[in-house]
TrEMBL record:
This is cytochrome-c oxidase. It is a multi-pass membrane protein. The keyword Signal does not apply. The keyword NAD does not apply. It is an enzyme of class 7 (translocase).
Length: 135
């Protein structure tokens, strides 16, 4: 928000505060849960969730400070004429499917982990190769 309270130029500070608040709230829940429940998995997952909220909030806060300071970007505030967007592709589906198979492989064994890793690596390679070509 601006000094006069107008939210039109907030530039991500509101979102940063929301995510930092989520991280702090979940951290508080983690402390209570860890003290009352005798379970490590739930406490660990809540702690990781609090960390993700804090990480996202810190990133958004950093970006809002960077956007507010023209010296941080070298004084260059120009927007490119045309943004490059990748073409429609099947590769992200392969990356997602490979990650799902790898995640199942963590529970089922190496017979699912290895093919999932191979599919993920091949799909990331294909997507990177495709995105290098611009029309």
């Amino acid at each position: 928000m601006r000094e006069d309270g107008a939210p039109d130029k907030a530039g991500g500070r509101v979102e940063a505060r929301i995510f930092l608040g989520i991280g702090a709230a979940v951290l508080g829940m983690t402390v209570v849960y860890g003290a009352t429940a005798d379970e490590r998995a739930g406490t660990t997952m809540l702690l990781l969730t609090a960390g993700l909220g804090a990480l996202t909030g810190a990133y958004l806060a950093h970006q809002s400070r960077r956007a507010a300071d023209p010296a941080a970007t070298g004084g260059n505030r120009e927007v490119p004429e045309e943004a490059y967007l990748p073409h429609a592709s099947i590769w992200p589906l392969g990356v997602g499917a490979g990650c799902v198979v790898m995640a199942n492989g963590l529970a089922l064994g190496a017979w699912a982990l290895v093919p999932g890793a191979m599919l993920t690596v091949a799909s990331v390679w294909g997507y990177a190769r495709q995105s290098r070509r611009r029309d």
